[in-house]
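stage 2 :: seqdesign
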């Protein structure tokens, strides 16, 4: 998935449960799209720029009892970037829209 995920954030959430993360993408120095499973993603916004985020090979998100809340941090190369906002991403809608676009493009080429 590309940066199209930024088009699908929902209302801010107070927290979410995370046992592990599947993958992640840093669209910029202030945000991280974190996939906890293939169909669950969250747009995490940090307070202030997290300078190394766009270049990081790995990231870590702190949890308290497997819960990520606004009191947690994104850790990149030893830098602790405090969370400011958590927004679930509607991954299912994003996938459905993508399938629809691809079908329309295929019909246009036929």
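stage 2 :: out
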């Amino acid at each position: 998935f590309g940066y199209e995920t930024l088009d699908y954030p929902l209302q801010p959430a107070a927290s979410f449960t995370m046992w592990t993360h599947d993958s992640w993408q840093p669209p910029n120095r202030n945000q991280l799209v974190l996939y906890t499973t293939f169909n669950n993603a969250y747009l995490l916004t940090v307070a202030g720029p997290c300078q190394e985020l766009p270049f990081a090979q790995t990231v870590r998100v702190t949890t308290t009892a497997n819960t990520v809340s606004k009191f947690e941090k994104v850790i990149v190369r030893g830098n602790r970037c405090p969370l400011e906002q958590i927004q679930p991403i509607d991954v299912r809608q994003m996938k459905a829209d993508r399938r629809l676009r691809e079908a329309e493009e295929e019909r246009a080429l036929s």
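stage 3 :: structure notes
- The chain has a mean pLDDT of 88.
- Strands lie at 15-17, 23-25, 31-37, 40-46, 60-61, 67-69, 73-76, 79-89.
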